[in-house]
């Protein structure tokens, strides 16, 4: 008789953004006359840049001709894309990453969830708290997290590293030694960043204790300040302890297009076995590669025109972030983030829980944000507002909150 993977049954509730979407749907059904503004899930609203559209059209035309038609893509990605990623994202920043260490995928979310598969179930994970829920949830599904404490909202076998105002939302090295360390900077949800010297400490620590860092740099395009690393490979020694996840969703608006990549350096080994080979094996077995036309669109992200257009797009969202940050501050909220990231993080007023504040904003201002507690127990009494809306909607949403 078939048996379930009962790890799935241990998961509390539904995925954070599914719960948010359900609550908004129910509210809209009950109040069809209200204009609800959604600044919750980090989904972009600006259209794809012209250089990307042009490249997509050209690739579609190629697929319509026998001479240029392409079938299965190479498992690990087309060379034209891996080459340009290695050059522009890494080598031009002084990072030693080569094209054959880049694995192209359909996005950072699936890589973030799947990467744990190449590690033993005995590994203990450490996560920043709060953080993108996919890291913990995917380890729960795998059966690596122990038992769930409903009151504390924590897993017994997960090391939570609180990210609070007191530590500028940057985790401290935990007392208990982890095997896998998930770090995300610029951070989702807090919008906080890590300085290069701080990240170097993590790299040194991981090399010392034999841990692997899974570094999610999906928001690196939003870094505006000096001294903030765009990649973990800017740190010395990262090639022997770190995997990096990257996305095209936020820097190029590919949330609906789907493209990302993961870097697994060949020097990263456990007991002498390179992880590169394991991830390549997984990719080869479970994945048929991102579509040709999408990889061509990804290539256009790095063209001169693409770079200029995307810089303008990021600036557009960051203008929203500034409006959100300043507006909420003027309204008396304690806010952070929004300078090197498209997320503004606020403390809920009057000690409201994150979900109470969610309901309050939805009901009184018809604005949707994301409850901080959905990202981890230390996110309780916090709330995330994203900068990915249109400027007009962002202004209207913040002005409504200010008027409460
Ligand atoms: C978020 O809102 O946290 C992200 O958009 C979710 C994602 O990228 O999957």
Give an overview in words.
- The protein is an alpha/beta fold.
- It folds into 2 domains: 133 residues, Aspartate Aminotransferase, domain 1; 251 residues, Aspartate Aminotransferase, domain 2 (3-Layer(aba) Sandwich), CATH 3.40.640.
- Helix content is 38%, strand content 15%.
- The protein has 13 helices and 17 strands.
- The strands form 5 sheets. Strands 2-10-9-8-7-3-6 form a 7-stranded mixed beta sheet, sandwiched between helices.
- Helix 4 runs parallel beside helix 10.
- The longest helix has 27 residues.
- The radius of gyration is 21 Å and the shape is globular.
- The termini are far apart.
- The relative contact order is 0.17.
- The mean pLDDT is 97.
- Bound molecules: D-malate (MLT).
- D-malate (MLT) binds next to loops.
